[in-house]
Amino acid sequence: MAAFKIILCLLFYITFVSLLPLKATSTSRTQSEALIKWKNTLSQSPSSLNSWSSRNIQNLCNWTGIMCNEGGVVYKISLPNSSLSGTLTYFQFSSFPNLTHFDLNNNEVSGVIPAAIRNLSSIVYLDLSSNRFEDEIPSEIGRLTQLRYLDLNNNNLNGAIPVQISNLQKVLYLNLGGNYLTDPNWSDFSSMPALTFLGLYYNELENAFPDFILQCKKLTILDLSLNHLNGSLPKSIYNLAKLKELRLGTNQFSGPILQDLGTIPSSIGQLKNLRHLDLHSNQLNSSIPYELGFCSNLTFLALAGNSFTGELPLSLSNLTQITDLGLSENNFSGEISSELVTNWTRLVSLQVQNNLFTGTIPREIGLLSDLTLLFLYNNSFTGSIPLEIGNLENLLRLHLSDNQISGPLPSTIGKLVNLQSIKLHSNNLSGIIPADLGKNNPFLTTVSFSNNSFSGELPSGLCSSFRFELFTVNGNNFTGLLPDCIKNCTSLRRIRLDGNQFYGDISQVFGVHPNLTYINLSDNLFTGEISPDFGNLQNLTNLQLERNRIFGKIPPELGDLQRLGALRLEWNQLSGKIPSELGKLNNLFNLNLGNNLLSGQIPQSLGNLTSLQDLDLSANNLNGSIPTTIGNCVRLTSLNLSNNDFSGEVPSQIGNLLGLNYLLDLSSNSFSGRIPQDLSKLKTLQNLNLSHNNFSGQIPQSLATSMISLQFIDLSYNNFSGPIPNVGIFKQAPAASFTGNPNLCGSEKGISLCNIKSTTKKSRENKLIISVLVPVLSFVLIATLIAIFCIITRQRSKDIDEETTDTDTITFANIMNATENFDEKYCIGKGSFGSVYKATLPTGQIVAVKRMKTTSTDEVPSKNKQSFENEIRALTEVRHRNIIKLYGYCCKESRMYLVYEYMEKGSLGNVLYGVEAILNLDWATRVNIVQDLAHALAYLHHDCNPPIVHRDVSINNVLLEAEMVPRLSDFGTAKLLNPDSSNWTSVAGSYGYMAPELALTMKVTEKCDVYSFGFVTFEIMMGRHPGELLTSLQSSSTSPESLVLLLKDILDQRLLPPTDKETEQVARVLNVALGCTRVSPESRPSMRTVAQELSPRT
């Protein structure tokens, strides 16, 4: 029995022991079999692993990437850059207990990192970087306590960093960067005292600075950049005295650092070994501490993209080893001291752009012989470019744009033999371009001289390297032919020559440019025809040739430019038909062919342009009807077909253009029929002009009730009949919007009543009633009435009442009472021909009464009488929303009186030079005033028969409504232009506003008003008398782009500078005004052209 028990216990023990896990024992055979098995699971096995074969098991230690110890056991697997593709799922980690090095860097291994990796108990070096591992880092990796080097960077790992990693107390190098890792509970992290390199960059960390790092006293490189870390930078970080590289860029560090808020603390000076400091793109907002200069071993300093302020401390001159200095996009100010530059002779990159630096560029810049990048743009540097800049023979990129640098471009710039990019745009540079520039710069690819005051011709060798990719010289005063080498720059991507005086044949400018995307040659003097070769520029997205002297036909080959987004050819002399091939430009959003000599019909194919937003075909000789396919252009926001010879009815399909929100202008054509009801579907349209056509029928009420966004409407000079709707825009629109429609009615617009008979009655002697004028009286009738009134006034001593309509009348007695016999306290203005009084009538209506000057004799002075009759005649015929309205007139006791509508704001001159200018005359309002004045004068010159020259356009003769809408007034010196007369006259007009030829020759033409308009425009924008400015601008041949540069100096300094959009509008207004003030009358534009140019644009 005892023996049995012994045997039973022995069997139990054997069984128990057999169930215990055996210690892994590996032989070369088991390891080779494990490697072959893993190789066979790889989706891609490179030829370099051909040695991994069952036929080659005996040579395991000679396999690719395998190293064995003396016992023939694998201790190192090194397969970096081996094009491996697969996973580690089937890798038998347990077969390699002696493995110390495992390197799979830069392959395509994916999947998870298996938890079985814990079996690599001897591993010292583990590099799985630059693969496609995903999911979380296994916490089991914390068991690899012998690790010295762990690199998992540049994978797709996510989740929180496992705190078990801090168990790796022997690790020296830890790199987890370039993943999607998030914050753990940093307080659970243990100190890692052996750590010298820590990389957590480019992850999703978003909490405060990890505190455990502050205990890693041996750290030499710390990289936490490209995360979302926030809060303050702990001051003790600067106690990590062994740090050589500190990379904290692109985070959100800010907040308090002890007593400092968002600053670099002075303790940074303790980092004597620091060579690389990167704090860029955070929210730090102090000045640079003086102590930063104690980090004298710094070679790289990046503080860009913060909110640092103040001047650069002179202690930075101690940074004699600095090679890369980045201070851009801050608020640094003051000068860059020559003492600093003198000590930075090892600089390779100096980037201080987008700050507030002032002063000149120090001449000592020439000492930086290793410099390759010099970025000083968007500051306030002044002075000239120093000659010494030519010493920078290693310079690759020179960017000095958007400063206030003046003077010529130094000839030494041609010595920069390695120069690739030079950007000097938006400065005050002048003179000619050095003749040698380009000849000795064989690597030059980028040249930007735009928005300066350069003049002369471009050097013939400027692009002799044929490497140009970007070439912009717009907004200067360049003249002459373009260098021939332009056509040989096959890598050209962008070219802007607009706003100069280049000339030559447009067809000879370009060659073969397969990469060209942007062309703007507008506002030059180019001639010739557009070459069909433009159709070969297959990558072109923008083609602007407007305002040149180009003639001939539009080549149909332009329809091959499938990427073209903008095609602007307006203001040339193009003729022929619009090519139907343009309908193939599926990406076109802006098509402007206006102000040419184009004829024929609109091609049906333009309806294929479904991306089109702005279509302008105005001022051509186009005819026929609007194609119904236009309704397919559903993205149109502006459509201008004015000033052509279109006829027929407007297609109802225009109502499909629901995106039309800015402008629909069909004016000055021969359209007929009724306004289509579908037009009322354009609920977002703001401006509608159907004037000067042959439309008929009643005005649809739906235009007002449905088109709720309308701000402007003009239906004048058509054949509309019936009542004018008294709702919406029609209630607000002035009478001028409906004039020229003899069958329209509606008393509120100053025309005949609807269905109410007018009565006229004569009253007794002794009273004269100043009544509302009957509109549209003929010139002969008006002249006859004036003569009768004046004769009666001289022959009778009693007053006469005369009522011309059945509306409320204005009596002279009421005016006498309202002004207390023209007491001075009611006088609101005086001029050369009399005084103006404010009168509040018993009805509450306020009017302005102009009382003409007289002499002591009973006879009305002939000059005043002529002035009086001129104004009566002119105003009787005139009906425009921006011209003063005349209520009545009379001659009384050797005096003459005119009764106008009262303008609440008074004259523009009073407002412009008063305290209200800042509040009421912002930039948008000033632009609107100028636009309205242009339309008023255009009406006088081109829509009145005979034309009317005002002859006294000045800011004092422009009155303002409460809403700052201008009304042109004071026709006392107006002269009706008879086309058959010589129009010689005595000098009239206000001093300073008269055209030069009027003062010298006394010959009056409408161009006299054009000059005065230009003068007034400058005064409105400047807030002061232009003085001699116009003379200097004319003599310097100021271009549109260079005018933009002058704005900050000439505009009204009482207002804030205009926004970018306002700057564009103001510059356009002043550019037109400059043309109006040309000395030669023949060179001035007509007011109709001016009005069209100033009309609102998208």
Automatic annotation (TrEMBL):
The places in or outside the cell where this protein is found are: Cell membrane; Membrane
Q: What GO CC annotations are associated with the protein?
A: plasma membrane
Membrane topology type, per the record? Single-pass type I membrane protein
List membrane-spanning regions: 768-792
- Extract the signal peptide range: 1-19
Instruction: Please name the GO terms that the record assigns under molecular function.
Output: ATP binding; protein serine/threonine kinase activity; signaling receptor activity
Per its record, the protein catalyses: L-seryl-[protein] + ATP = O-phospho-L-seryl-[protein] + ADP + H(+); L-threonyl-[protein] + ATP = O-phospho-L-threonyl-[protein] + ADP + H(+)
User: In its UniProt entry, what is this protein called?
Assistant: non-specific serine/threonine protein kinase
